[in-house]
Design brief:
Layout (H helix, E strand, L loop, with lengths): L1 E6 L2 E6 L5 E10 L2 H9 L1 H5 L5 E4 L6 E5 L5 E10 L3 E8 L8 E9 L2 E11 L4 H23 L16
Antiparallel strand pairs: 1-2, 3-9, 4-5, 5-6, 6-7, 7-8, 8-9
Length: 166
C-alpha cells in the first residue's frame, strides 16, 4: 500500500507495509484446563466439537486432518502441545488464504472457569472468507464449550449453518 503526500509542492511517498489480520475470540468454559486441553489437543477431542471427520496424531510435528466433506478441509501441523495451557497449529493444507496461518489456543484457569483465548493469526488481509471464518470459529468455540461442559458438542456436519452451505 502506498500513500502519496504533497508537502510544499514536493511529493513524498510513504509506503505502509500490509498489516496481517487476526481472528480473536475468548470464551469461558466451566471445566478444568485439562479437559479443555484434551478437547483441543487430540483428534478425538477435535472430532467432538469441530468436525466428526478428524484424524491424525496428538504429537508436536505431526499433522491433523479436519474434513468437511470430500473436497473441503484443513491439514494442521501441530506446533505446540502444553497441557499447562497452550496448543498451536500451523495450517499446511486447505484454502490458499489459510495456508501459513496459525491457530493459537491458550487456556487459563480462573476459579471454576477455564478461559479460552483463541487466535487464528496471520491472515494476509481481511477477506470475505476471513470474516466468514471468524463467525464459524465463534460457533465452533461454543461447540467446544458445550462438548466440555455437557459431553456433547455440535461438530460438522451438525454445526450451526450461517448461509451458503457453511
Amino acid at each position: 500500500m502506498v500513500f502519496t503526500v504533497r508537502l510544499c509542492n514536493q511529493r513524498l511517498q510513504i509506503e505502509k507495509e500490509s498489516e496481517v489480520v487476526d481472528i480473536v475470540h475468548q470464551v469461558g468454559v466451566v471445566a478444568p484446563v485439562g479437559d479443555v486441553y484434551r478437547a483441543v489437543a487430540t483428534p478425538e477431542g477435535v472430532a467432538g466439537w469441530w468436525s466428526i471427520d478428524t484424524t491424525g496424531k496428538d504429537e508436536v510435528g505431526a499433522q491433523m486432518a479436519v474434513r468437511f466433506g470430500a473436497d473441503d478441509g484443513f491439514d494442521l501441523e501441530i506446533l505446540e502441545l502444553d497441557p499447562a495451557g497452550r496448543v498451536r497449529w500451523r495450517v499446511v493444507g486447505g484454502p490458499d488464504e489459510w495456508i501459513g496461518t496459525e491457530v493459537d489456543w491458550r487456556f487459563d484457569q480462573r476459579g471454576e472457569y477455564t478461559i479460552v483465548d483463541f487466535a487464528h493469526a496471520g491472515w494476509r488481509e481481511s477477506t470475505e472468507l476471513m470474516r466468514e471464518c471468524s463467525t464459524k470459529w465463534a460457533i465452533f468455540l461454543m461447540s467446544l464449550k458445550e462438548l466440555v461442559e455437557t459431553g456433547r458438542g455440535r461438530p460438522a456436519p451438525d454445526d450451526v449453518q450461517i448461509g451458503d452451505g457453511h
